[in-house]
């Protein structure tokens, strides 16, 4: 049998539940006004509580990680626009905090993040390339402006890069090669295309075949091809499967196989 005190407590609890339901809007408005009037004091109380109970809070979060993640995911799905607007506003007002936090997190998890990035790129390489291509097409003017600004701010760097590039061409262009044929190939370049090395020269780092083998090409006529500007830019310092097929095609006597290419480079 319940005591009088227990009955009274249950009646009070039932009354408060009903009161909160009937006065929900008024209570919410009062809480908003109170938080607005006492924002600094409330924030300080939260910070003090966090510092005094950090270990307990972290332990509770670890114990309830899955449940909290699911609750958060559902809430964000329902309130996506409001959440994104709030986070944009908060990041704008706390740029230094965001930068410091991101930097510390990256330094503490650098190996895992790089491995995750490599795996994600390998799994979604076509999607990522298409997204980057779309972004470049939508921001052409901004990219050109950034390029000009970078050149004006670092002219010595670009001069050094050009000198290094010319040095690579000299080192990987045998003395017996017909220079006129190379010049003629460049002069006959179709409009909208760029001259590409089928086996990339490599520069500081050797190029990679689709199987992951390191190779360096020569600056010779049979290692040149015409590519549209976008295709040449996306190829970068890599060999595609189509490039491999060109390199191993001896029948037309146009492209040298990779083994011969490597042997010439070592001479």
SSE layout and pairings?
Layout: H1 4-22, H2 24-37, H3 39-52, H4 54-63, H5 65-78, H6 80-93, H7 95-108, H8 110-123, H9 125-138, H10 140-153, H11 155-171, H12 179-187, E1 193-197, E2 207-208, E3 214-215, E4 224-228, H13 229-235, H14 241-247, H15 258-266
Report on this model:
The protein has 267 residues and is mainly alpha-helical. The protein has a domain at 155-266. Helix content is 71%, strand content 5%. It is built from 15 helices and 4 strands. The chain has a two-stranded antiparallel ribbon with strand order 1-4. A two-stranded antiparallel ribbon has the order 2-3. β2 and β3 form a beta hairpin. The longest helix is centred in the first third of the chain and has 19 residues, at 4-22. Residues 250-267 have low confidence and may be disordered.
Strand content: 5-15%
Largest sheet: 2 strands, antiparallel
| Overall morphology | elongated
Strand line-up across the major sheet:
1-4
The average pLDDT score comes to 82
Order of helices and strands: HHHHHHHHHHHHEEEEHHH
Helix content: over 70%
Number of strands: 4
Counting helices, strands and paired strands, the structural category is mainly alpha
Poorly predicted regions: 250-267
Q: C-alpha Rg, in Å? A: 32 Å
Amino-to-carboxy terminus distance: 102 Å
By DSSP (H or I, 4+ residues per run), the number of helices equals 15
Can you tag this structure with a few keywords?
single chain; 267 residues; mainly alpha; two-stranded antiparallel sheet; 5% strand; elongated; disordered C terminus
């Amino acid at each position: 049998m319940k005591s009088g005190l227990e009955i009274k407590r249950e009646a009070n609890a039932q009354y408060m539940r009903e009161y909160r339901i009937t006065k929900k809007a008024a209570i919410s408005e009062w809480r908003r006004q109170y938080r607005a009037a006492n924002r600094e004091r409330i924030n300080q109380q939260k910070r003090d509580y966090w510092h005094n109970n950090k270990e307990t809070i972290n332990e509770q979060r670890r114990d309830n990680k899955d449940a909290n993640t699911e609750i958060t995911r559902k809430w964000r799905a329902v309130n996506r626009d409001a959440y994104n607007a709030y986070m944009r506003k908060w990041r704008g007002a706390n740029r230094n905090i965001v930068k410091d936090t991101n930097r510390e997190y990256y330094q503490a998890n650098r190996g895992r993040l790089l491995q995750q990035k490599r795996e994600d790129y390998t799994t979604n390489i076509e999607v990522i390339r298409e997204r980057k291509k779309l972004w470049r097409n939508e921001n052409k003017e901004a990219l050109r402006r950034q390029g000009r600004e970078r050149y004006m701010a670092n002219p010595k760097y670009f001069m050094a890069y050009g000198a290094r590039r010319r040095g690579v061409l000299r080192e990987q262009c045998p003395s017996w090669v017909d220079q006129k044929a190379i010049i003629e190939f460049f002069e006959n370049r179709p409009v909208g295309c760029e001259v590409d090395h089928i086996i990339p020269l490599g520069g500081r780092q050797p190029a990679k075949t689709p199987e992951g083998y390191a190779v360096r090409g020569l600056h010779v006529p049979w290692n040149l091809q015409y590519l549209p500007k976008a295709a040449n830019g996306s190829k970068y310092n890599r060999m595609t499967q189509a490039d491999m097929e060109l390199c191993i095609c001896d029948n037309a006597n146009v492209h040298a196989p990779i083994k011969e290419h490597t042997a010439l480079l070592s001479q």
